[in-house]
Every structure is written in structure tokens, then in C-alpha cells.
Amino acid sequence: MRILISNDDGYLAPGINALADALATVADIVVVAPDSNRSGASNSLSLDRPLSVSKAANGFYFVNGTPTDCVHIALTGMLDVRPDLVVAGINNGQNMGDDTLYSGTVAAATEAYLFGIPAIAFSQVHGGWAEVESAARVARDIVLRRFEMLDAPFLLNVNIPNLPYEQMGPLVPTRLGRRHQAEPVIRGQDPRGREIFWIGAPGACRDAGEGTDFHATSQGCVSVTPLQVDLTHRDQLDQLRRGLG
After folding, report:
1. Taking CA atoms, which of 116, 169, 211, 243 is between 20 and 30 Å from 130?
2. How many CA atoms lie within 13 A of 189 on its CB side?
3. How far is CA 211 from CA 156, 158, 215, 225, in A?
4. How far is CA 86 from the centre of its chain?
5. Are residues 223 and 174 in contact, defined by beta-carbon separation less than 8 angstroms?
6. Which tens digits make up the pLDDT trace of 82-110?
7. Using an 8 Å Cβ cutoff, are 219 and 180 in contact?
8. Residue 131: what are its φ and ψ, rounded to 5°?
9. pLDDT tens-digit profile of 30-40?
10. Half-sphere exposure at residue 6, Cβ-oriented, CA atoms within 13 angstroms
11. How many Cβ atoms sit within 10 Å of the Cβ of residue 50?
12. Which residue numbers in the chain have pLDDT < 50?
């Protein structure tokens, strides 16, 4: 099995290093990741400047761009052989509910999915990298399942509790929950006295009932959510057809 690995925390992050170590035991891997933290980059491509690719001492490739840039460059210009799977992560913190719209981790996996390649995004529920080696073992277990019950390509969003491997709950199929509106921005001043703004914290859970990713992980289980890219609001499309006649 050939696997391309990327992330949004940068090629030096503990999450991607643990993931690469775990998957290298079961597959031929290539790592192409951002040169620095690009959390929240979503599906952005860098179209205003050329991008460069460098190789680190450990064999990882790093790009001065976004997670989507990394996967796009790897698939369209770097790799001689198409990977069987693309994985992203392990992210430093959860990507559940509305987070998936902003997540660079999910975006890296989505880019592969758009190219017709199965993809999985992995995140830990809490930041700080506690039990990241256990999360990497879970990720390896999930990759080895191959998910032949799903139509290919598939796009999975996986959130893993920060627990020892032996205490980890089962894999639970889930839907995305929902958050309340995000907290307000935090105002401040830079050293020259100019007003600056920090993006506020995400909103608290609004829909975290049974069947959601929030609920599953709160029970110590691993949440596995199948995603799709089609954003069409089909009910409103039918309303438009009737209204526009």
C-alpha cells in the first residue's frame, strides 16, 4: 500500500511524526506537509506566488504553502506513482462539527478525495499531544481496515480521544454535530498602538446528541464520520425551481 501523508500543523509536529512512524510499518509512505503551522487554512490554494518544496533530514518534504497546496503538488507534480490512500494529521485538537469547514487537516484529505483517491483525516480530541502514540496506533488500525464496504473514493473524518490505547473505545460511525456561534474576536493593540484582533474561540456544542461526533468522543469512543463535498441545498433548489417557474 502506498500512502501520502500531510497535515496542517507543519512537518515538525508530533502528530505527523507519530502517524508516519506508525504507518511506515504497514505501507510505503511519503510525507508532504507545510513548513509551518497552517491551522484554519481550510481548502485554500496559494495562487499569488510560486511555491517551493524542500526535503528535511528525516525524508519528509515540506512546502511553503497550505495543506491543500501540499497534497495538490504531491499528486500533480511530485509523485511518480498515484497513492492508494491519503491521510492527514494527526491534528493537534479536534475537528468535529463546524470545525471541518475551517480545518486544514480535513482540507488536505478533501483535496485527495477531489482527485478520486480515498482519504482519511485524523485528529485528537484535545490539543497538547497527550497519548499521540496511542492515537497513531488507532490510525494504523483504521487504515488497515481499508473500508471496502464503502464506495471509492471515500472521505473520512476521524476524531480520537486522548486516551491510552488499551482504554480506547470502539470505532463509532457518526454524523457531524453543530456548534453555537463563535465567540467574539479579542481586541488588542500592537507595539505601535494600532488596534489588532485575535479570532475568538469556537462556539460551544449546540448539537452533541447521540449519533454525533461530539457524543461519541465524549464517551471515549473513536468517531468516524463520512464526508462529502456537494454543498448543494437540495430542498432550496426545489423551492427555487418552483419559485422561478
Report:
1. 211
2. 4
3. 16, 14, 7, 10
4. 11
5. yes
6. 999 999 999 999 999 999 999 999 999 99
7. no
8. 60, 30
9. 999 999 999 99
10. 36
11. 7
12. none
